[in-house]
Design brief:
Strand order of the largest sheet: 4-12-11-10-7-5-6
Number of helices: 15
Shape: globular
Distance between the termini: 38 Å
Helix content: 25-40%
Structural class: alpha/beta
Radius of gyration: 21 Å
Low-confidence stretches: none
Number of strands: 17
Strand content: 15-25%
Bound molecules: 4'-deoxy-4'-aminopyridoxal-5'-phosphate
Mean pLDDT: 97
């Protein structure tokens, strides 16, 4: 068949423009029959692997009984079942949910809820954060200028505090943490006072911003500042959630609890679904009709996929696998990049790993991606300068598949060295 891109918007970056017709586990297949190891998981979405049989079966079964039930009119039983099961894997106190379709929608909703719950107007986000493409989400996003460029002015009442990027500052984590917490305190005195600040929103590990984990001490300090000032803490775990980092939620590993949690991506194995979680008390501040959407919570198929995803994560021990395979992947990445004649940084958690390549050679990272692609490995990059390559295989990935991917990476590095 003669397929072309000519009817598709140019807005998509299209790192791999070949038509993909099939996916299975860690692999996707193009219409020429070529096989690729997918170490992007569609930006951390297909966490149970492509077309996991249990997810496929749940979708098929649900499609035969109920496809949609609008939440203001009826409630699909599967939505109630999923909310109950989700509460069981969320931290104590996060037991009430609003569902929507995309990460951006969850962020918009979380911000609306924070404003209503506190009666305050302003928000603090952190430099390098990515929270989405809708207006408020763009205003909170500073991972890369291209996300905001051409859309200014964006909603006001948003203040950007520094994120503790010790690696880039050339400081220790303690120094970066202290500096950033001090700047935040200063911001609360000089730019947005506590009585007008509804919430701080943070990705515990910057995703699009370069796979940069915040030190746990920074999160703990931030929690303390929020508590002392009556400010809510929204943790955006849209990319880090559902086992991706080797814990169900990365904030658990950092010993900090959010007031509001935003979730999406790995939640539905590819079906569009997202959510906001918080306490029942906080959720009750949202009066009927003050937030909503046609599809959120009502897509019984997305709910069935999310339910099956959670089941697979638990039954197949995928959180543990993310942790174990993450260690293997990190170690192999270090073996490959440490000998290179440039400064590198392997970082992240579980199966959310990034390698920053500090080189002046223009196009080095795109060339590396290209060489990997030619050999059958799809990789994404991220970071302000695009020089961080991310490794985000499905949580089902095996040691053997990691070894295959790393053999390709090794060859690709040699090819461009
Ligand atoms: N928050 C985070 C942390 C994300 O990684 C993303 C997507 N990359 C979003 C929000 C926005 O999600 P979506 O693209 O589904 O709107």
């Amino acid at each position: 068949m003669n397929r072309s891109n000519s009817h598709l918007s140019n807005a998509w970056a299209r790192i791999h423009p070949v038509p993909i017709v099939r996916g299975k586990g860690s692999f996707v297949f193009d219409d020429q029959g070529n096989r690729y190891l997918d170490f992007t998981s569609g930006i951390a979405v297909t966490s149970t692997g492509h077309c996991h049989p249990k997810v496929v079966e749940a979708i098929q079964r649900q499609a035969e009984s109920l496809i949609f039930g609008q939440m203001n009119c009826v409630i699909p039983a599967v939505t109630m079942d999923y909310a109950r099961e989700l509460a069981e894997v969320c931290p104590e106190g996060i037991d009430s949910f609003f569902f929507s379709n995309s990460g951006s929608e969850a962020v918009e909703g979380a911000v609306k809820l924070a404003k209503v719950a506190t009666g305050k107007t302003n928000l603090i986000a952190f430099s390098g954060g990515f929270h989405g493409r809708t207006s408020m989400a763009m205003a909170l996003t500073t991972s890369k200028g291209v996300v905001r460029s051409g859309y200014q002015p964006l909603p006001s009442g948003v203040f950007i505090a520094p994120f503790p990027t010790a690696f880039h500052l050339g400081w220790t984590e303690e120094e970066a943490t202290r500096f950033c917490l001090d700047r935040l305190q200063e911001m609360l005195k000089s730019q947005t006072r506590p009585q007008e600040t509804a919430a701080c929103i943070l990705e515990p590990i910057l995703g699009e911003g370069g796979y940069l984990p915040a030190p746990a001490a920074f999160l703990q300090g931030l929690r303390q500042i929020c508590d002392q000032n009556g400010i809510l803490l929204i943790l955006d775990e849209i990319q880090t959630g559902f086992g991706r980092t080797g814990s169900m939620w990365v904030h658990q590993a950092m010993n900090v609890e959010p007031d509001i949690l935003t979730i999406a991506k790995g939640m539905g194995s590819g079906l569009p679904i997202s959510g906001i979680g918080c306490s029942g008390e906080m959720m009750s501040k949202w009066q009927p009709g003050t937030h909503g959407g046609t599809y959120g919570g009502g897509s019984a198929i997305a709910m069935a996929a999310a339910r099956a995803t959670l089941q697979v994560i638990q039954e197949e021990g995928l959180v543990e696998n993310a942790s174990e395979q993450g260690r293997h992947l990190r170690q192999t990445l270090e073996e490959i990049v440490d000998p290179l004649d440039m400064k590198t940084d392997v970082r992240g958690a579980g199966l959310m790993l990034g390698v920053e390549f500090c080189t002046d050679q223009p196009g080095w990272v795109p060339s590396l991606q290209e060489e990997c692609l030619r050999r059958g490995l799809i990789l994404l990059n991220c970071g302000l300068d695009g020089n961080v390559v991310r490794f985000v295989p499905p949580l089902t990935v095996s040691a053997d598949e990691i070894d295959q991917a790393m053999a390709i990476l090794r060859e690709a590095v040699q090819a461009i060295a």
